[in-house]
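quick one, 257 residues, struct below
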Amino acid sequence: MSAVDEVDELYRQPLSDFTRARNALAKTLGGDDAQRVRALEKPTVVAWAVNQVFWRARAAFDRVMNAGGELRKAQVAALQGKAANLRMASDAHRRAIADAVAQAERLAAESGSKPSADALARTFEALSLAASPPQPPGRLTDALQPAGFEALAGITPKKSAAPHAPAKTAHQARLEVDARGSDGRGARAREAEERKQEAEAREAALAARQREAELRKADAAVARAEATEKLARASWEHAHDALLEARRKRDDVKKAR
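---
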């Protein structure tokens, strides 16, 4: 097993084994490699649970990343004035996050851990919408927070084109020059209007992200409730089977008397 594979294995193990396994691996190495391994931070429970989805439920992890990439493309396209189905992309992203959160909770429960569903959802959102996700994957050490509108920095909202105006006469042109004056008041007014439009676009994008976050939170709550209901149903069925078996044995004893 290569050194990279051995480090990956650290993040696949139960969280309680991380420190012991890390120190044991460092002892098998020398020099800078040993120091780098000893410096590896133990993940928080949220980061560890997200890592487990990458290592043990890769399909769910890939769906989140792919859906996040599609949503980011749609957001950029919308800001540039291009055709984009933001609603469809947002819905697909929410469903993917809800499924990944449910997988993370299931895998964590197997090890006796209970990470925050909200923190899991925020971390999956941040991972999937990041322009450059952390590398290598599967080695998160802390929960992440989704970036705001600044994540789309460099994307200039497209401004609607002004309607075609009739040609101006020389007299009208002179009047406009006089109205603008030498101090450039007209240019400043246009710049102010452009800034206003950009601010409105940012506010609209932020409001959309907040609505998406609320919907993802609601989807995660539904996923948790469904998982709880399934566990309760399985427990009831087991108890019911045990009751029937106990009655059968009692009836056999009565018949034998």
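The CA atoms of residues 62 and 242 lie 41 Å apart.
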